């Protein structure tokens, strides 16, 4: 579970921004929207609002980069490679400083606080601390290539400092060398689902895998039926194909080599079934359609997400979705948020999304500390403010107040019609 994430001097972010999953002292939805873990109370979900180019996606991108660098810096980089990190470039002093990343998270009964500072040349600082019971103690601390390690807390990490390049994380190196605590953290970050914009198709195989599993296939079908998509059934069929059917997509200089090793292959196709009626509105059978050719973009997105949503709920994983509302009806988006906020499901899964859908700013759905507004200052630097910081009354119409500009995070758009008035066409 994420306790908080903090990032500074990264892309559109100058001064550090913190997304805090620690629940505030407000009382609403305390029986449903919160995770009680030992003495820590965390939010199950969080929504980011802001106008286009406010920096919502950059915050989610920062989490994804943080995760990627932890999982890959020891293996993807050579000693001379630059680190692919971008500072805030609209302020001269910031462009010369390292970017900052830090997350506090809970695995089992241990709370970790891990972070690093890096520019394109090297990791300047890196730290890992852990809290058991109440006391936070360092596991390792790094300044440039000087790394101070508590070997009792980081067993089997002896001499790995010498194997750590300046452009790699010590945590990543330790994970590669089978240090159990590093592996545990590395695997936890790898378990985070991070869906960028419109790339939900990349997760379809998770849904198909569950649909092929007798234990979960009925649950997948009920997820589809309960969403009122008009689909009465869905099936998977194997479709064989030949080399000649795909050769045009293969570079000509590679065709002979691939043809020699090509056997008849299979791919999967989704078939959706819709009720067929007679003129008396009686169901007389099922009409079958090729899913990708006949169903809407919204239906396909929902299907692609079902598998990872179920997996996250069952395995207590974190789901991060950019452009959450794209191609989804507001009521379907609400249903997904309710799933994570449910008091009926015992899970420690968390959902973090960026959205423009103001219908979700609903006091019957969310607490005030679950809503963040993102906007930019005059320098173009993003900042984040939780709704609870505005201290609105519980009965306030949050969505209306947001659109009226009371919480910031909305665009101030000039009159576009005037561009077509006399004298403005040139």
Verbal overview:
- The protein is an alpha+beta fold and 426 residues long.
- The protein folds into 2 domains: 2-192 and 317-403, 3-Layer(aba) Sandwich (Rossmann fold); 199-302, no CATH class.
- The chain is 25% helix and 28% strand.
- It contains 11 helices and 18 strands.
- It has helices at residues 56-76, 170-176, 180-190, 204-211, 217-226, 243-246, 255-260, 291-294, 297-315, 330-341, 398-403; strands at 2-8, 17-20, 34-37, 40-43, 45-49, 99-107, 110-118, 123-132, 135-143, 146-149, 193-195, 233-241, 265-277, 283-290, 318-321, 350-354, 371-376, 382-386.
- The strands form 4 sheets. The protein has a 7-stranded antiparallel β-sheet, covered by helices on one side. It has a 6-stranded mixed β-sheet with strand order 11-15-16-5-17-18, sandwiched between helices.
- Strand 6 (99-107) and strand 7 (110-118) form a beta hairpin.
- The longest helix has 21 residues, at 56-76.
- The chain is globular.
- The model has no long low-confidence stretch (mean pLDDT 91).
